């Protein structure tokens, strides 16, 4: 019996469908993405096309001029790059048998101990998208990074400026050789991506060589983030992160209450939380605090008070937050407490009410990076199961005439998106400079920004810090030194060597003006030198502004 060969589309049919679709979209640029599949099916059926044509195939038949116009129409998951960068997340390997990738033993934490049959780093289930990608590539940092960049390019994003996030366990708890090898593998992939021979998998000879090459790579690494615990974010740990190229640290603070931390077996104290934040800030790192409402022994009222303490007490005041309501995952000790009736999570409505209250009280210098863990619903035995919790909260706030004051909700791209505007229609004529000053971790912070007149839309911002007396780095021990911990112009990514199109706000001088204002404020405070903690690929930008390499920073005499 003759085997049936699968039907394939001919080159002629593929071209015909692609060209007709391109011409249709150029005539109708406001086509909604939700209708795009139906349009593809209709055009495909007309030409006898099998299945639904992929966007990446359609793009290959467009001229360079057409591709630029099609970019926003065909690009999937626009929010991935609306903040001015592309996020690339990779995950470390599970710890070898008999060992752990984290020193903690938390009640609620999934991972190696709770799921012994699943190869995954501590605090993850193995079913998160990043975890599944890491397993697919056998936890190889090079392969994970390279294929993630390819995936993003395939759905229409241009990974020109990227932030790398290394997830899984407590990275600073891993052996130093593993830390260095993992980071170097990621760096090699970024260097090779967009090179003609990147499939050769050529590697650099050392981490230092990789760092040197990254400065001028076609894909620019503008930030590196590590996940860690407060007790692994002290001086020696922060120094190690800086050696590896870090610009931001995510710290599992979880709560400001000693009793909640102790009962959850966090094995660190509130004092550890405060010390970790201070050490990181004084070294120039941005601080992203992981906070967990609905912990055992807590209540909605306590959770709201915990968040108020985070910003009322100057020893906390993180730059960013991830809000992860406590979830019950099978195999954890918390799951056993739930089965025995010792723990009962809030209803979804109570969680929503708590988070809505929090979002309306946030100061303008904070960015909520994420709400809700990315855990598949079938693994959540109790707790909020909606992965779109952030969107639910945002919709409720708008319906009640309220708004969130966090950076993300005010960023130009998200601001326009919430109001169903295209970026071409956003009015930038009323943008003005602001300086929000506050005490934090023994020092003084200036949140410099360009915003509209009512401070509802944010164009760009900079974090300038005057250090605490406890600052430990040799580059910053002189009190006549200030440090820029972050500078960001938001909105759609414009390539580092590209000219902005209409509606794009990067590369229009906002960043340079923010730096000039930071230098002037530093001079007024009696400083003679300004440091910047710059992502490796962002260093050339600062070299052009008169800065030079200084330890792990770039610096300029002012």
TrEMBL record:
Could you tell me the superkingdom of the organism this chain comes from? Answer: Archaea
- Domain annotation Radical SAM core: ranges: 82-378
Q: How is the cofactor bound?
A: Binds 1 [4Fe-4S] cluster. The cluster is coordinated with 3 cysteines and an exchangeable S-adenosyl-L-methionine.
Q: Which cofactor does it need?
A: [4Fe-4S] cluster
Record keywords: 4Fe-4S, Acyltransferase, Iron, Iron-sulfur, Metal-binding, RNA-binding, S-adenosyl-L-methionine, Transferase, tRNA processing, tRNA-binding
SUPFAM superfamilies attached to this UniProt entry: Acyl-CoA N-acyltransferases (Nat), Radical SAM enzymes
The EC designation for this entry is 2.3.1.311
Its annotated pathway? Answer: tRNA modification; 5-methoxycarbonylmethyl-2-thiouridine-tRNA biosynthesis
Which residues does [4Fe-4S] cluster bind?
Answer: 106, 109
Enzyme group, top EC level?
A: transferase
In terms of InterPro entries, this protein maps to:
Acyl_CoA_acyltransferase, Aldolase_TIM, ELP3, ELP3-like, Elp3/MiaA/NifB-like_rSAM, GNAT_dom, Radical_SAM_C, rSAM
What molecular function does GO assign, one term?
A: metal ion binding
SMART domains per record = Elp3
Which GO biological process entries does UniProt record here? tRNA wobble base 5-methoxycarbonylmethyl-2-thiouridinylation
Q: Which reaction does it catalyse?
A: uridine(34) in tRNA + acetyl-CoA + S-adenosyl-L-methionine + H2O = 5-(carboxymethyl)uridine(34) in tRNA + 5'-deoxyadenosine + L-methionine + CoA + 2 H(+)
One GO cellular component term of this record is: cytoplasm
Q: Which family does it belong to?
A: Belongs to the ELP3 family.
Mind telling me what this protein is named?
Elongator complex protein 3
Q: What is the lineage of its organism?
A: Archaea, Promethearchaeati, Promethearchaeota, Promethearchaeia, Promethearchaeales
């Amino acid at each position: 019996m003759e085997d049936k060969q699968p039907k394939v589309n001919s080159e002629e049919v593929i071209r015909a469908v692609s060209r007709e679709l391109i011409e249709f979209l150029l005539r109708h640029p406001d086509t909604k993405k939700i209708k795009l599949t139906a349009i593809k099916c209709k055009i495909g059926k007309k030409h006898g096309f099998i299945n639904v044509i992929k966007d990446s195939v359609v793009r290959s038949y467009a001229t360079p001029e057409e591709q630029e116009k099609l970019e926003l129409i065909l690009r999937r998951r626009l929010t991935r790059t609306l903040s001015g960068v592309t996020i690339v997340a990779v995950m470390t390997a599970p710890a070898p048998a008999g060992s752990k990738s984290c020193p903690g033993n938390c009640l609620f934490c999934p991972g190696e101990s709770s799921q012994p049959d699943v190869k995954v780093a501590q605090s993850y289930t193995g079913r998160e998208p990043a975890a599944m990608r890491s397993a697919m590539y056998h936890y190889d940092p090079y392969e994970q990074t390279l294929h993630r960049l390819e995936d993003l390019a395939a759905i229409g994003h241009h990974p020109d400026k990227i932030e790398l996030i290394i997830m899984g366990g407590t990275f600073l708890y891993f052996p130093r050789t593993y830390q260095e090898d993992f980071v170097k593998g990621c760096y090699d992939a970024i260097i090779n991506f967009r090179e003609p021979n990147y499939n050769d998998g050529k590697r650099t000879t050392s981490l230092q060589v990789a760092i040197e090459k990254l400065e001028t790579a076609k894909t620019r690494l503008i930030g590196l983030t590590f996940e860690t615990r407060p007790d692994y974010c002290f001086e020696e740990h922060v120094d190690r992160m800086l050696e590896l190229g870090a610009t931001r640290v995510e710290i599992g603070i979880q709560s400001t209450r000693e009793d909640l931390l102790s009962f959850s077996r966090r094995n660190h104290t509130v004092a550890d939380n405060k010390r970790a934040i201070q050490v990181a800030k004084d070294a120039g790192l941005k601080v992203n605090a992981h906070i967990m409402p609905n912990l055992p022994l807590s209540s909605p009222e306590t959770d709201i008070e915990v968040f108020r303490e985070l910003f009322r007490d100057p020893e906390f005041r993180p730059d960013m937050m991830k809000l992860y309501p406590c979830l019950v995952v099978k195999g954890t000790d918390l799951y056993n407490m739930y089965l025995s009736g010792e723990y009962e999570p809030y209803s979804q409505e109570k969680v929503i009410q708590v988070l809505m209250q929090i979002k309306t009280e946030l100061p303008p210098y904070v960015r909520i990076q994420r709400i809700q863990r990315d855990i598949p619903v079938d693994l959540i035995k109790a707790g909020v199961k909606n992965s779109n919790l952030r969107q639910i909260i945002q919709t409720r706030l708008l319906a009640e005439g309220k708004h969130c004051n966090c950076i993300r909700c005010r960023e130009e791209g998200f601001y326009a998106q919430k109001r169903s505007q295209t970026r071409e229609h956003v009015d930038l004529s009323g943008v003005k400079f602001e300086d929000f000053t506050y005490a934090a971790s023994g020092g003084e912070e200036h949140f410099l920004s360009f915003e509209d007149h009512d401070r509802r839309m944010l164009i760009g911002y900079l974090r300038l810090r005057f250090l605490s007396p406890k600052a430990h780095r040799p580059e910053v021990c002189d009190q006549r030194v200030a440090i820029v911990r972050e500078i960001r112009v938001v909105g759609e990514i414009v390539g580092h060597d590209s000219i902005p199109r209409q509606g794009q706000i990067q590369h229009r001088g906002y960043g340079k003006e923010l730096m000039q204002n930071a230098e002037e404020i530093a001079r007024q405070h009696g400083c003679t030198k300004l440091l910047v903690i710059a992502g490796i690929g962002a260093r050339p930008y600062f070299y052009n502004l008169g800065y030079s390499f200084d330890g792990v920073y770039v610096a300029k005499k002012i």
